[in-house]
Fold each of these.
Amino acid sequence: MTETKRGAVGALLIHGLGGTQYDLGLMHKVLKRAGIDTHALTLPGHGGAPEDLLSVNAEDWVEAVRAKYLELRPLYPTLHVIGMCMGALLAIEVVKREHHRNGSLVALAPPVFIDGWSTPWYRALRYLVYKLPPLARRMKVEEAEPYGIKNELVRSIVKAKFERNDNFHYRWVPLYCIQQVDRLRGWVKQNLADIHCPTLIMHAREDELTSLHSADFLAAQIGAANTRLVVLENSYHMICVDNDRELVAQNVLEHFGLDPALAKPRRRTAAVETAEASGADE
């Protein structure tokens, strides 16, 4: 029998589409510094090659997160669920389905709507391609500049990692995979009033993938009495590694009732911290 970690606090961190825990920057390290046990999972179809995504669907992602959540829930009196990008959608959906109450929900840059400033005008045409499954499986959606990052130094580090084919993020995903994200987005929009745990939503005003409409929608629809929306003014989509990364960590700690000063790097230069946040130290 697994023994509950009495008095301990845990956090489940969920990465985004095509990504890894690099999506969350220094969040694991900051939370550990604050005394929180952090846990992660590699979503189905991730950690290998983009083609691996062709064998999974939205149900697989939800079930993987749900299984990890159910594994951790008996271990901690307080368990927080934190997700970035698609991971935020998965966090919302699992918290909703499991009627989570013994901790908080943190949704970082949740793409409830794909309507950011860099998305092409013809984005709605993808729904026509979905009707041709073989084509949707062959078509690729490439990662391109600005890679969700406003900070030029971090962007250059990420670009170099892509050029070296480092295994930190897929360079492309199949359009079929975007279809699965669209299905997940549809689920997330439903029954948000069933969420009653304290909720923090953080979103960049200049997010190139998903506009503030996503954050505003969630803030208005989630049923939790304690729902807080923080708008960031100096980042694009990847808020955990961009200019506002420290502000993100501070707000997460404050939401958990912890000292936000713990988010500040200890005896590190800005360049070293930036490199670590983008995974350049691996």
Amino acid sequence: MTTRLPGFSVSGVAASKIAVAIVCLAGLIACSDSGGSSQTPTVPSETATGQVSTGNTSSLTLVGAGERNGIFDDRILFGQSAAFSGPASELGLGMRTGILAAFAEANENGGIHGRTLELTFRDDAYEPEAAIANTTALIEEDLVFALVGAVGTPTSRSAVPVADLNGTPYVAPFTGAEFLRSPTYQHILNVRASYYQETAEMVNRLITDLGIVRIAVMYQDDSFGRAGYQGVRIALADLGMEPVAIGIYPRNTKAIKTALLDLKQGEPEAVIMIGAYEPVSHLILWARHTSFNPEFMTVSFVGSNALARELGEHGEGVYVTQVVPFPQDDSVPIVAEYLEALAKYYPDEVPGFVSLEGYIAGRFVIEVVERCGRDIDRTCFLQHIRDGQIIDLGSFELQFGQDDSQGSNEVFLTVIGADGEYQPIERMIDRTR
């Protein structure tokens, strides 16, 4: 495989290292924010058409050398770099499942303007360097029309400049980071609410519902964790408050014991956690084991199904903010359609918030492709829906503007019940009474 950069024609790992160096020298990413392992996974690209009746959708597809930007006579090719291995893998897998379910649904009905929708995907294991290499390969080798369903803030921070330099749409990343919502990046279209909105809702619920004022924060030591931490600080500062304790842990690890000790010193009534499901569940389990039982809250990125499974009987009372409707509430039209598509194309998959977000991302892509018509191009895809009109995907509404790249502002509150299942709630409950 050959990666093409201006003035270069090199292959494999060498190309990815040059890409990293060029982007870093240009000042486009924080290269010190790599965390964890710096090894780039050498995972082959796979392509799924969505035209299947089971969860096994992978098949290698060769793209014609004469075709550019993923638009073919009979199909449109999208790309995804996400975590399909490692401690955040269920997030990438869930997003992919949801996107493919939406694509399969559309393809079975004849596609969009005579074209089927395909998704080619590469594993970045939630590592920024791998996200750069994958994004470069998806654009330069796979020739994708747009990128959809990326997972994570540090990986997006690394991949976005590559997509921007190539004019490639970056659609529905699974992150609420604020930089993705900057008017500077006109090639980004976010579906979900931001981390600032999620953390503001957390602080508001804790204070309004429970009267809690001693709030601590645990966060992942990277751009994702800092984005959520900053959101908590802003929400508290608006009320003349600040965190009573702070715990930090390294990305892609479960090394949370030092963070737990730091949190305990502040004697908090509640801990807001900004992390993925493995370290977050690890901290809660250790806290329960040591009789440290404040209210625990975490953001949607955690991966709700995986968190509940990891916590088991110790999950009761853990709160999670969500940015999509409850995935079992079939009174919401898009949820009913998601459940039907999941049962048909991925019958072994358990419905969840992550795959529902992936499905909504896929439906959003389909809606924009539909509106652009047969002569679709990237300019139409990025600008056609920025006129302030409401896009109703089935009682889940999106609205974009010229300087507003975020479609939804919805934040929902859920809690894990005694049965280990999530429950949607309007307000927090004082479990000490």
